[in-house]
């Protein structure tokens, strides 16, 4: 067997190997303890948490008039973390498709952007239990000239172009129902996508129902409307429903557990509904009995 030209061959005792591996794992995780307390201890000590967001109303965005990070996810996070003794949230603006890499690279401590829980994402990061459930919608030009009332309608008309925000669940839905890549145009964020459909670069934009509602309200553009009626993507015989949550590095178990502990009594409470009402959320968007563990293991559908 060939050995390195630069390192002498030697045998390490089995116990030493195990200790070295354990030390390497701890250093790689950057947590400093077996239960992942490191990140939480740092947050608790400084009283500040950094959260990644993608500037997508109504889930998470910067309100320029108040210079305040707000939306469904940041406002819930702000309340829960205040209860845990963390006084300040510091937002880190990131393109949606870069949120998971940014989290794993340590640019921020958690994602508060309304990100859907999916099995594929669960292989990379950990999620809290969901804070909402959501269906899909399309924005189309006035009169819906292409007669687009579902993802399947895009498949049926090979001339239609569908606009999506890069890295979002809508891309997975489009792939799952069989929309060819040549019919899809990717945009870095929601404002860019809205400009794309206003300029007729795409025939429709796919987003969550509340994203579409918020975009149309702010755009005040009579040349655009919401496709009505609309049926969301049908995956394995069922209309897809997304569940949004906070996201964490896998090693940050303590932070995730603290958030989950507060969510258990908060979601569905009067305080919760009051906090999210300004963003269009109500009882219809409550996640019900859905839990992250089951959603991470859900068979079938787009990952």
What does this structure look like?
Residues 1-34 have low confidence and may be disordered. Helix 3 packs across helix 10. Strand 2 (61-63) and strand 3 (68-70) form a beta hairpin. Helix content is 36%, strand content 21%. Strands 1, 4, 5, 6, 7 and 15 form a six-stranded mixed beta sheet that branches. By secondary structure, it is of the alpha/beta class. The radius of gyration is 22 Å and the shape is globular. It has helices at 14-29, 37-46, 72-83, 99-104, 119-122, 151-156, 169-177, 190-198, 209-219, 253-266, 270-276, 292-296; strands at 48-53, 61-63, 68-70, 88-93, 110-116, 126-127, 132-134, 136-141, 162-165, 184-187, 204-208, 224-226, 234-235, 238-239, 242-248. The protein has two domains: 37-133 and 243-294, 3-Layer(aba) Sandwich (D-Maltodextrin-Binding Protein, domain 2); 136-239, Periplasmic binding protein-like II (D-Maltodextrin-Binding Protein, domain 2, 3-Layer(aba) Sandwich), CATH 3.40.190.10.
């Amino acid at each position: 067997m060939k050995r390195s030209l630069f390192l002498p061959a030697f045998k390490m005792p089995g116990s030493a190997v195990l200790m070295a591996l354990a030390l390497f794992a701890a250093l790689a995780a950057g947590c400093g303890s077996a239960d992942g307390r490191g990140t939480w201890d740092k947050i608790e000590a400084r009283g500040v948490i950094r959260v990644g967001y993608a500037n997508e109303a109504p889930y998470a965005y910067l309100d320029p008039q108040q210079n305040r990070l707000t939306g469904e996810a940041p406002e819930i996070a702000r309340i829960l973390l205040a209860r845990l003794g963390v006084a300040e949230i510091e937002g880190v603006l990131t393109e949606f498709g870069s949120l998971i890499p940014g989290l794993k690279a340590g640019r921020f401590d958690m994602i508060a952007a309304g990100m859907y829980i999916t099995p594929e994402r669960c292989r990379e990061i950990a999620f809290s239990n969901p804070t909402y459930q959501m269906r899909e919608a399309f924005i189309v030009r006035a009169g819906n000239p292409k007669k687009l009332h579902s993802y399947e309608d895009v498949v049926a008309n090979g001339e239609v172009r569908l606009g999506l925000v890069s890295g979002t669940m809508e891309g997975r839905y489009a792939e799952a129902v069989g929309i060819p890549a040549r019919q899809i145009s990717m945009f870095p964020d929601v404002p860019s996508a809205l400009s794309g459909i206003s300029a007729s670069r795409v025939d429709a934009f796919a987003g969550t129902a509340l994203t579409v509602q918020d975009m149309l309200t702010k755009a005040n553009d009579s040349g655009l409307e919401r496709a009505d009626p609309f049926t969301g993507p049908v995956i394995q015989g069922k209309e897809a429903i997304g569940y949004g949550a906070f996201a964490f590095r896998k090693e940050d178990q303590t932070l995730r557990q603290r958030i989950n502990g507060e969510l258990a009594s908060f979601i569905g409470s009067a305080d919760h509904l009051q906090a999210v009402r300004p963003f269009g959320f109500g009882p219809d968007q409550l996640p019900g009995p859905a839990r992250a563990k089951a959603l991470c293991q859900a068979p079938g559908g787009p990952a």
